[in-house]
Write a structure and sequence with these properties.
- By secondary structure, the protein is mainly beta.
- The chain has a domain at 106-290 and 317-337: Beta Barrel (Porin).
- The protein is 3% helix and 58% strand.
- The chain is built from 2 helices and 22 strands.
- The protein has helices at residues 37-43, 162-165; strands spanning 2-8, 11-17, 24-32, 49-58, 66-74, 76-89, 94-105, 111-113, 116-118, 128-140, 145-158, 177-190, 201-211, 216-227, 232-244, 254-255, 272-273, 275-294, 304-321, 337-347, 353-361, 366-371.
- Strands 3-4-5-6-7-10-11-12-13-14-15-18-19-20-21-22 form a 16-stranded antiparallel β-sheet. A two-stranded antiparallel sheet has the order 1-2. The chain has a two-stranded antiparallel ribbon with strand order 8-9.
- The longest helix has 7 residues, at 37-43.
- It is globular and about 85 Å long.
Amino acid sequence: MTIEDTVVSNQLQWKVYVEERWYLWPYAYVTFADPTINDWLEHRRLNRLTLHAGIAHTNFTGYNDKAYLGIRYGYREAITLGYMRPFLFPKQQWDILLESEWVRQRELITSTQNGEIIRPQFYPNYAITYFFSRVALRKRFSQYHFLYVRPSYRQVSIHDSVLYYNPLFLGEKQKTSIRYTNIEIRLKWDERNIRPYPTKGYKMELSASLNSLGFSKSFFSYNFFHEFSRRWYWAAGLYIAQLWGKKVPYFEKLRLSKTAYGLRGFQRYYIDGTFLAVVKTEWKFAVVPWQLFHWKRLPRYFRTFPFGCYLYLFGDAGYIEDRSNTNFDDFYKKRFLGGYGIGIDLVTFYDIVFRVELIRNHLGVWDWLFQAELAIR
């Protein structure tokens, strides 16, 4: 961006010149089916990799909207199609998101036994196939406060051999397919200063959902960020989730390894339940505080870019229990779990964050973790 000022007839005029970024954004990356990269390096099987590719078109119809298409191939096969339109009703401040996804894969975690994951393979057949479609409406009460209403529909089918390992995988005995609807209402208060990588402020979410299968879910999260100086920061997060009802399908249960509220140090473990609570904290030092850089040697669309580098210490604690009729393994449940370690965050183009952590859990197990999103956000 450049600014020129001129004086015409004793009047000061400003001219602002900007360069628009690309509207069409292709992308491609690879993810691991294994919980950590260390697990994958032990066997290095290409069939446990998923290739993600797609394209997003911003300002699709000139209303700052976005349409996108995503394809996944490999361990997990999927097609995703979506459209997002802000200010669908400008006076009422409503946004809308439409999204549909079709997914299938040949391997499936069917249960655990004494903490060990049971993950049978069904090659060449597919273990699970599901279709998911939703409409998400967002009401803007202010710049910081939002209401979300999300009705959705899901259809899930499993190979009949899955029932040998877990006859209640879909919540009822001997069922190989289900269809159900769900509606979620979520309130969100978001007063973070930099949403891709917050250093000050807070974010709080409260949600409740009900589906046609007869169980419901409630969730609460609170993330707090404090800046002591230009280089020293502190972040903390609290996450509480509860599933209400006895007949909860196995694949719908809460997991301590889930990224949104995952307990670091236990990403290798599949610990499922109907109630969980997780607390996280981080002490950060900014090696390079987040800021905009300008590098003339890059292509003109990318010469101005954000970058930040943060080194931090962290500690997590969590608890989970299971009161459903699909609880077959109490290993690691009804006890406090914890993990701690050191990590580094790299913040760069278009809100992308790369996170590398060295972790030790309270059982004495060390591990590396690579992620493309923040642990506390």
